[in-house]
Structure formats: C-alpha cells, structure tokens
Amino acid sequence: MAFRDLREYLQTLERRGDLARIKVEVDWHLEMTEIIDRTVKRGGPALLFERVKGYDIPVTANLFGTKERVKLVLGGDPDDIAREIASLLKPEIPETLWEKVKVLPKLAQLASFPPKRVRTGPCKEVIKKGKDVNLFELPIPKCWPKDGGRYITLGLSFTQTSDGKGKNVGTYRLQVFDERTLGFHAQTHKDGYRHFLMWEREGKDMPCAVALGGDPVLVYCATAPLPEDVDELLLAGFLRKQPVEVVPCETVPLEVPADAEIVIEGYVKAGERRLEGPFGDHMGVYSLPDEYPVLHVTCITMRRDPIYPHTIVGKHLHEDYWLGKATERIFLPLIRLILPEVVDINFPLEGVFHNWAIVSIRKRYPGHARKVMHALWGLGQMMFTKVLVVVDDDCDVHNMSEVLWRMFGFIDPGRDIVIVEGPVDDLNFASPLPRYGTKIGIDATRKWKEEGFNRPWPEDIVMDEDIKRRVDEIWEQLGIG
Asked: Which of 147, 191, 215, 281 is labelled catalytic?
C-alpha cells in the first residue's frame, strides 16, 4: 500500500497497536535519544512525542524500527519485491531483436510512475522567508552528549546537477549552526557532494531543498544505492504503484513532495566550508569533526500543524539496520544480473553494512571466489566493504554459526586471504588515511586441486536421511524431551 503522507502512516500504526503516544514532557536535549534508543533495541513501537520541551510541534521516531514496519512502508516483503524486480530483468541478456523488444515494456515498469507535478500541497500552508526563517523554531534534537550540536537526521536532501539533467535525493545529516545555516554532510562518495562540486567548479551556489515527512517510503528510497543521477522518486513510484506528487519550491528551482510536513530551502555556498561534527554515528563511535559545505536557508514551508520526523544512530541496533536489510534483499537481483554466480548475500548487524559482507556463490572454476571479491568491490557502495567473505552455495549466509565455522575452518591464511587498497567510507575511523585504506577478502570455499590444494577435501559429517527419519518417528518414545 502507498501512504499519502507521514500522518496516514502513523494512523495505520496506531490502529495496529504499534504507536506509543508520549504524553509526558520530554527534553529534545539527549532525553529523547535515551527513550528512542531503549525502545528500538527492545523492538518497541513507533513513538510520537506530543510534548517536546519548549515546542508545540510533536516529534515522531522509530518509524522503521522493526522488520514488520519496514515491510509496511515498502508495501510488501523485501524478498517479494526482489522477485518482482528479478522478473522485470529477464531475459537478462536478450540475444535476438524480438527478445529485446519483449523486455523493453518490462523494464519500463521500473519507471512507470514518474513524479507528478501539482500546483500546491499541504507543505505550503505556512511559508517563511528571509529574516523570518529560524531553524530553532523546529524541535530539532541533540542526540548524544558529545555531538557538535543539534542535528536534522531524517531530512531528504534534494539536489540536481548544474545542467539539471541528473537528480538525487539523499539522507545527509545536517548540523544546525545558527538560525539560518546548516552543515551539509554529504560525504565524498555521495551524489549530493558530486552535484555540489559540479556547481562549485562553475562558481555557482547549489540549490538544495530538505523535505521532512511525506510517504515514509521516500526515506527508504533516499537510502537505496541507485546508479548515479537516477531519480529516487522513480523508485518510490515503483514501490508505491503511484507517482509521488511534487510541488515547486518557493526560492530554489527544485521540486519536493507536496505532502511533506516541513521543507527547508536554500543554497549550498560555493567555496565555503565549516567545521562540522563530531556526531554519534552508526559505527558506534563519534565521527570526527571535519570541514563540510554549508547550506544557507532562504525559506521554510510547512503544514499548519507539522509533525517533525526524527531518527537516531549509534551502537547497534537502530532503524538504519532494518532499512539496510531491505536493501540487501531488494538489490540482490541487480547484483545477480552482473554476477549470476552469486546465490545470496548477508550484511551482518555487527558489520554495520560497510564493514562485513558474506556472499555465497556457485563456484565453477579456480579462483572464482577472488573474481567475485574484486567484482563486488567494483560495484557502487560495495567498494566500502572492509571484510568480504565468500562461501560455497550450500552455505546459508544468514546462519552465522555455519558461516563462522567455514570462515575459520575452510581457510589457509597464506593462500585464501586477499588484501587490497582502495577507497573506504568517510566514517571508517580505523583506516590510516581519510577515505583511503585496505580491505580484506576471505575465500572460505572448498579448495580445488587447481587452486594448489593437493589433498582430498574432507567430507562434512552428515547423518543418513533414513536414520534421521527413523529417529523422528520414535523420538517422543525416547522420553528425552
């Protein structure tokens, strides 16, 4: 199902008994974070803070904090969505002209619901420009004790290339510097930063709009690893099975969701950087202060009775884990399109996505695991994967006991470990240099003679199926429990 806006989603959660209304006054300074952190880690409900200290605007959080909630936002199970995408991508390599003709309508379905421009929307009910703009009128929380300030954490940053041909929606944290300026934390490898550099090279300030609220599926789409300049609103339309309605901004040449709660407009100024951070990040530590571009706010539009959406990150487990697991499932068909030998993939919680990935493959030739490692490191954000483990196709990559048994028992370190240098995530605090370091690949597949293994590979210990069935039949009679 598609939700028209954030409040329709909250109403649905409340009907399901999955929304807690917090009626006692809660301080936006740290106190709110402690409540959210405890709730998320206990698998608790979405939260609506109705009385935020010093504000009349309520704050909602933990919108994506369970697998079931993410399924509700996406309109289905991520594995089912993956199968739908896979069906649209077949035949994978059309060989004849007729096959190419047949596949085009299927592929077109992925972009069959482009954004729909409307004249106005609820986000335009209140408009403040120029000196009337004051970011401190919004209940923006301070999350962790040593954070550099208050942060917008669930804003959707809309940018485009300087020629207007490429668009992007990203979820970049935004530190509040003062009433009308924000730190624009678009990291080096993100499209938002690439867009900014294009504008800056031309000596121009980059238009930017930050939307808060709307259909919550927009948040997922803004986190999805789409190819460069593919509009995230196309993915949102595909998932919603209806277009996202957008309205033109007041002071910048961009369009934003008409049903957003709050929209912040402005320009990221060419040639300007300011120290941003520290920030308690999803790696479980404070990311270090660094120089980032600055967003100068020119206008804020909002509903008459807005709801401010918020999220926190920190030591796992948090909402970003469930959003990331959805991406793991939904984008598996696209990985298989490039690497058909891939069976499954798992980004374990402890790896915080970029630190650890486990991939199972149908091994067909010597060195196949290494080929897959290098291919995956060459795919978009997979380049950040610090530890990449490759196992055979009979290993359940989601069974960590099975994976670790193979990871430790199936390898000879001198033969099966690959260390490479290359780009790493901005938030990789362990690398000796910012944004550049090493990654490790572990070949935990069974080894072949052609790979230098000249002894017989031992067989796994497995009981005969007939014996297992026989014991199943008499188990209750044994009185073991």
From this structure: 281
